[in-house]
Amino acid sequence: MSSVSTAHSVVEPSRTSKRIAASIVIIYAVITMIPLLWIVLTSFKSPPDSISYPPKIVFQPTLEGYCNLFTTRTRQTPDYIASLGEPTSTCDEITRSRNMVIAGASNYWPRFQNSLVIAFGSTFLAVSLGTFAAYGFSRFKIPLAEDLLFFILSTRMMPPIAVAIPIYLMYRQLGLSDTALGMILLYTAVNVSLAVWLLKGFIDEIPREYEEAAMIDGYTRMQAFFKVVLPQATTGIAATAIFCLIFAWNEYAFAVLLTSGAAQTAPPFIPTIIGEGGQDWPAVAAGTTIFVVPILVFTILLRKQLLRGITFGAVRK
Amino acid sequence: MAEVILQGINKNFGETPAVSDLDLVIADGECVVLLGPTGAGKTTTLRLIAGLERPDHGRILIGGYDVAKEAPAGRDVAFVFQQYSLYPHLSVYDNLAFPLRSPARRLDKNEIDRRVREVARMVRIDHKLDNRSTRLSGGEMQRVAIGRALVRRPAIYLMDEPLSSLDAKLRADLRLELKRIQKELGSTLLYVTHDQIEAMTMADRIGILTEGRLAQIGTPREIYSNPANVHVAARLGQPHINLFPANLLPDSKIPAGTQTIGARTEHLDITLGGHVNAHVAWVEHLGDQNHLHIRLGDCKLTTLANPRLPVKPGDPIGLALRNPLYFGADGNRVV
């Protein structure tokens, strides 16, 4: 009997060890989720609730944070507010209850759009360039290929912010400061090394015979690349794209330094909300909550590829 | 279909010569099989014709045209790889249609459909056209790979050990089928293998490659019974040809200059109860025949024997030669 159960345990973990493993995973997941949950909850609190001590777990949810996030408001006398007609929206009503009226839209939405354009734009560029470069390194005899690859990797050996001042001066000279193009180029430059290295690993694993077969079947190398190599590299491309997107989306230091107006992204904008009319934590939390959504959606859409991607190479085919 | 000519082909990989001074003419509609051990340059020869490698020297003519400057797509050849040949992201149907949909051809949809279905029937895969190519057994995959070559009518079909990854029964079936299809289509075929049965049964002519050189080319019969040297003789015959010093067995007809004698089963006569010059070392029972391992002086010989021959290990026997092959000191035949 004992030999049977031993043999069994090699193939399949016992029930107890499975339970222990599951509890560890769940505990870890909960711990990492708490800050996110805290932010989401705070975004639905009223400003007094958000700073009350001890923190309120049960509270009256309100959209005030979201209203404040998307609007600018001015304080008015109760008489003036009473003289206005019926409130036109929920936000209007909430704002009036605080003795204020909506003056206009805040900058959050334009900043969010900047983030979308810059993050997705640079991810697209980095992954495209990375795919072609990785294919080249993988398939062709390139003089000094090893040195070039090391050079590409070496751009990652220091924190990018270490070169902030030269880049700042350079961007001012070139007129790239506070432009979406400038930020896209910058994030692409940082991400392309990661993309080349990750994708080279994936493309190395795709046997050359596929392209050779396609080339004999009447396709040029470029056509074979698009028809045969690219479809098989989707896993790697998806995984690489997520890593690049997360970096570009969350990047703060360069964004603070190089953008202030037209091309400002959401990360440097969100903290500035605090300054407008007291410590408006619910509005900050609302801004953060909305900011997380695109990455969440993108990752969920690509999660199958991502999972296969990050465990890639663990199992030999 | 077309004639393919290789003239003085040389190809080195770094310092290592892969193909040396290769001259080969494959006639229109002919099936030539290249036979040789691993690393003899068989696959390189195919890749040179396909344009996947460029020769260092020499010319390749397909249908009379020098194809030196043509990319693989422009050479009008079809290639069956040893493995990895199916596009894993496509269905069986799309795999077969892939060459026909290439920008170089641009056939219309109905014509593609007609040809794909016709070839699918030919290689007996028409019931699995909608399957993902990764969901097939090894034999089915290889049939699709062959079908993907047959769907076109190229100047020449190049096949690189297409049956080597299959089990024995399937290999025998597909071998027959390939030969039938080749005869039916009258196609020019250059086929690479290290399996002598495939070579003997499929080839119009067999070319024996050793170390990048074409040692001999001729009909299967010629190569088998009239080998030019020891290397060629050692390629064919089951069991492996016996090679031993010329003075080991009495033979009045040994020509001058003979150093080594090569004897296959048909060159050895065994007599029992007479003159004794050898002993049976071991008997392997194969069923329809026996492998007889014989000790002759310091040499061990292997031959086939009728299972009814009453011998057991240790028995004394008489061994005589009947028209064996004679080889000189340089390994070449002495006649």
Return the structural class of chain B: alpha+beta
The CATH homologous superfamily of the largest domain in chain A is named MetI-like
Question: CATH topology of the largest domain in chain A, which one?
Answer: MetI-like fold
Beta-strand share of residues of chain B: 25-35%
Q: How many domains of chain A, as an integer?
A: 2
Family (chain B): Belongs to the ABC transporter superfamily.
GO molecular function, one term (chain B): ATP binding
Main location (chain B): membrane
Subcellular location (chain B): Cell inner membrane
Explain what this protein looks like in three dimensions.
Chain B: This is ABC transporter ATP-binding protein. Chain B: It is a peripheral membrane protein. Chain B: It holds the Pfam family TOBE_2. Chain B: Belongs to the ABC transporter superfamily. Chain B: InterPro entries: AAA+_ATPase, ABC_transporter-like_ATP-bd, ABC_transporter-like_CS, ABC_transpr_MalK-like, ABC_transpr_MalK/UgpC-like, Mo/tungstate-bd_C_term_dom, NA-bd_OB-fold, P-loop_NTPase. The complex is a heterodimer of chains A (about 325) and B (about 325). With about 325 residues, chain A is mostly helical. Chain A has two domains: about 45 residues, no CATH class; about 190 residues, MetI-like fold (Orthogonal Bundle). In chain A, about 70% of the residues lie in helices and about 5% in strands. A two-stranded antiparallel sheet of chain A has the order 1-2. In chain A, helix 4 crosses helix 16, helix 10 runs antiparallel to helix 13 and helix 11 packs across helix 12. In chain A, about 35% of the residues are buried. Helices cover about 25% and strands about 30% of the residues of chain B. Chain B has a six-stranded mixed sheet, with helices on both faces. In chain B, strands 13-17-14-15-16 form a five-stranded antiparallel sheet, with no helix packed on it. A four-stranded antiparallel sheet of chain B has the order 2-1-4-5, covered by helices on one side. The longest helix of chain B has 18 residues. The radius of gyration of chain B is 24 Å and the shape is globular. In chain B, strand 14 and strand 15 form a beta hairpin. Chain B is built from eight helices and 18 strands. The interface between A and B is medium-sized, with 16 and 25 residues.
